[in-house]
Amino acid sequence: MSVPSVGRLARLWLVGVTVFGCIMTGPTAGWSDIIRHVDANGVIWFTNIPSSPGEGGGRRSTIEPTRQDRVKRAQLHPYRAEVEQLARQHALSPHLVNALIAVESDFDPEAISPKGAQGLMQLMPIITRHYRVYNPFDPQQNMAGGMRYLSDLLRLFDNKVPLALAAYNGGEGLVRRHGGVPPILESYVNKVLTLYEQVRGNSIHRYLLPSGTLLFSNVPLSQEQLRLWEVKK
Fold first, then answer.
1. In the chain, where does the domain assigned CATH 1.10.530.10 lie?
2. Residue range 67-197, CATH number
3. For residues 146 and 9, which has the higher predicted lDDT (pLDDT)?
4. Is 17 left (phi over 0), alpha (psi -120 to 50) or beta?
5. What number of other Cβ atoms are within 10 A of residue 221's Cβ?
6. Strand 214-217 vs strand 44-47: parallel, antiparallel, or unpaired?
7. pTM of this structure
8. pLDDT (tens digit, 9 = 90+) per residue, 53-70?
9. Is position 55 annotated as part of the catalytic site?
10. Which contacts of 150-156 are long-range, i.e. CB under 8 A and separated by 24 or more positions?
């Protein structure tokens, strides 16, 4: 399977290290490059506009447990040792892999989606063939193939986790055609990233900006920021 080139990046605000994602609830225009900004407090933001993030204006999962159940399963599932070993082999964060599997299959090795994705990491048949996963319902084989695929996507999208996750769930072609994270996949991407932070033990704070944008952060905003950005909790 050939690896396509990457188009322009998404308009979805990507927040890294201390801040992770935004869900754009209003209409979007074109897509632009992602800008990295470090504020005066050392907090790192990723955004698509050259200003403070407060300014301006899953498709395959077959099981939907509660948020608390999902966090517990992501921390205590029976494949922790295998995930740790395989993730290190492919330079992946085990916490990110745990969050991805939790959202995709809820750790059910026999899960099958309506679209035909199979096993723990919900691999489509074309992916299982490419990565030589002969039995997608074998947890070890499925995770090995899924992590190789995720690792390849991260390299393809310059280690931009939201784009790699969007491509993992919706396909590389869809992300390329849209020039970034398609709106239909924003909820999925933020679900994985939010769970990723929760699995790591960081609390997530939810804020609503005047533009209708939902901002998720593991660093609570100060009273001055809340007032300046007109943010609602």
1. 67-197
2. 1.10.530.10
3. 146
4. left
5. 19
6. unpaired
7. 0.61
8. 333 333 344 445 666 677
9. no
10. 150/90, 150/92, 150/97, 150/100, 151/90, 151/91, 151/92, 152/3, 154/92, 156/3, 156/4, 156/6
Among 129, 150, 128, 18, CA closest to 83: 150
175-233 tens-digit pLDDT: 999 988 999 999 999 999 999 988 886 555 667 777 666 666 656 677 777 777 776 66
Q: Report the residue count for the chain.
A: 233
DSSP string computed for 60-84: S------HHHHHHHHHH-TTHHHHH
Q: Which of 82, 104, 110, 172 is catalytic?
A: 104
Output phi, psi for 86, to 5 deg: -70, -40
d(CA 181, CA 10): 5
Tokens of residue 14, six digits: 């990507």
